[in-house]
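Thread amino acids onto this structure.
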């Protein structure tokens, strides 16, 4: 099916209004439902799942320190929109087919409100998972100003629930951000980038089997899913009309498995001002930005002196990353900016020279160094089985950092893929990456480095909650655990890997 590019205007998700707000707390109710939505003017309306009747869901905005309560309400049908593989952990025959639990990605939150994968619930809370604790989640928003996002996290079907549309932005603001005089209001736009494939009738396509079907299984998980069209904010290859001035964009890769290496075909710079966890020390001008699934970049693009021009945002990241096929003319195109609106007033916003100091976590303060492997094995059906530290999801908890302690985690990638590794609860800093002899490690269990440490890329030098762990490299991250104790998870954010079975619980103890 050939769809025209730049046929639909970019939608901007509305900001959600709370049900209740007073000086002490803010309360939202957010419904998850099934509905039809137009994703491209040449397609029939597509049945999707979403929050508050829209895909992506509305943007939730909180102020740093604001105490927010959210009741996430499942009003979805009992039958899944997409093929469920019952051989995947957490999705076996004894659980309901449709389950949800919402995780605010990047939030520092008590564990009972974190969206633990086995804290799922069904329509009207009729059935709940073994770790379900309460129907109303509490977010204390202790973070600095940053770009977070919320999405489903139900064990064994996260890849299907997010692909169906259960995702939205969650922005934290603070007084320092307001003082920076960045582009704001209608000049600040979140961009959620995803890939999908459609059937002729406009419905979502998700494979029932991998390329080599698994005999004896009606439905089987695939190693990774890559769609053949790119959507931004729920529209296929949209365009955005802009004025000849500065705009702030919050870029989010919300794809299941696809990485993006974004460029502007005008050759101009992105001025990056923030990473996953908030502002960088100062802006950097970059010609390209690489985003693994779940990574965010806060950028300013300046369209001044470009009146009348059309600028295309392109992608040249291979799939799978880093050694897969290059994108084609469709997956290599993201969206278009049309500098076609008249300037509505003098642009007084700035790209500040200085943003926010980044206190470096001292390596010497780490009380523990953990060496953790990323492994690729085969399951009894001959399928790829991705593991962390060679352990499945329900092996006993082995990572038990103490509250307030600092640790260094060395991620030893023994697979052929780059894995975006995400830790719940905390932000970390990337120390370095270093090439090593993976084959020797597999035989002898010894790390033999084959090159010097490589510092993080300039675009990663800030607070992060997701890091690209590349093949044949040891990636080192450092973080302080807190401010909460309890049960959290760390996992690969390629959703097919996370669902099978590249996710582990960890426990913060007193």
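Threaded sequence (510 positions):
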């Amino acid at each position: 099916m050939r769809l025209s590019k730049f046929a639909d205007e970019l939608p901007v998700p509305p900001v959600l209004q709370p049900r209740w707000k007073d000086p002490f707390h803010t309360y939202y109710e957010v419904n998850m439902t099934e509905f039809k939505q137009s994703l491209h003017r040449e397609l029939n309306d597509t049945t999707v799942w979403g929050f508050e009747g829209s895909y992506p869901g509305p943007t939730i905005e909180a102020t740093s320190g604001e105490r927010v309560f959210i009741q996430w309400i499942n009003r979805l049908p009992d039958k899944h929109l997409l093929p469920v593989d019952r051989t995947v952990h957490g999705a076996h025959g004894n659980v309901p087919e449709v389950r949800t639990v919402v995780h605010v990605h990047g939030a520092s939150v008590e564990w009972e409100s974190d969206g633990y994968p086995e804290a799922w619930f069904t329509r009207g809370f009729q059935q709940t998972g073994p770790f379900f604790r309460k129907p109303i989640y509490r977010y204390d928003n202790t973070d600095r100003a940053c770009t977070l996002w919320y999405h489903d996290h139900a064990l064994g079907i996260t890849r299907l629930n997010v692909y169906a549309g259960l995702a939205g932005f969650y922005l934290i603001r603070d007084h320092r951000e307001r003082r920076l005089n960045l582009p704001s209001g209608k000049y600040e736009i979140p961009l959620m980038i995803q890939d999908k494939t459609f059937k002729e009738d406009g419905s979502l396509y998700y494979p029932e089997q991998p390329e080599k079907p698994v005999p004896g299984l009606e439905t089987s998980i695939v190693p990774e899913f890559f769609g053949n069209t790119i959507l931004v904010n729920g529209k296929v290859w949209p365009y955005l009309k802009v004025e000849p001035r500065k705009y702030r964009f919050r870029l989010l890769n919300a794809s299941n498995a696809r990485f993006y290496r974004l460029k502007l075909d005008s050759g101009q710079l992105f001025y990056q001002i923030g990473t996953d966890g908030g502002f960088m020390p100062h802006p950097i001008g970059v010609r390209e930005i690489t985003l693994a699934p779940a990574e965010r970049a806060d950028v300013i693009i300046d369209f001044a002196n470009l009146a009348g021009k059309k600028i295309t945002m392109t992608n040249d990241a291979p799939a799978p990353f880093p050694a897969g096929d290059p994108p084609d003319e469709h997956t290599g195109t993201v969206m278009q900016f049309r500098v076609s609106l008249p300037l509505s007033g003098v642009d007084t916003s700035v790209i500040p020279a200085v943003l926010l100091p980044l206190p470096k976590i001292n390596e010497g303060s780490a009380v523990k160094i953990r060496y953790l492997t990323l492994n690729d094995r085969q399951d009894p059906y001959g399928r790829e089985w991705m593991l962390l530290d060679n352990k499945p999801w329900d092996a006993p908890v082995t990572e038990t950092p103490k509250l307030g302690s600092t640790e260094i985690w060395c991620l030893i990638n023994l697979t052929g893929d780059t894995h975006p590794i995400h830790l719940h609860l905390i932000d970390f800093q990337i120390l370095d990456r270093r090439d090593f002899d993976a084959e020797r490690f597999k035989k002898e269990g010894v790390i033999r480095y084959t090159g010097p440490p490589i510092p993080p890329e300039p675009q990663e030098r800030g607070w992060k909650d997701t890091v690209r762990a590349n093949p044949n490299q040891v990636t080192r991250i450092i973080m302080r655990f807190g401010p909460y104790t309890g049960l959290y998870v760390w996992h690969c954010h390629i959703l097919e890997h996370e669902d099978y079975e590249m996710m582990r619980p960890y426990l913060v103890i007193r």
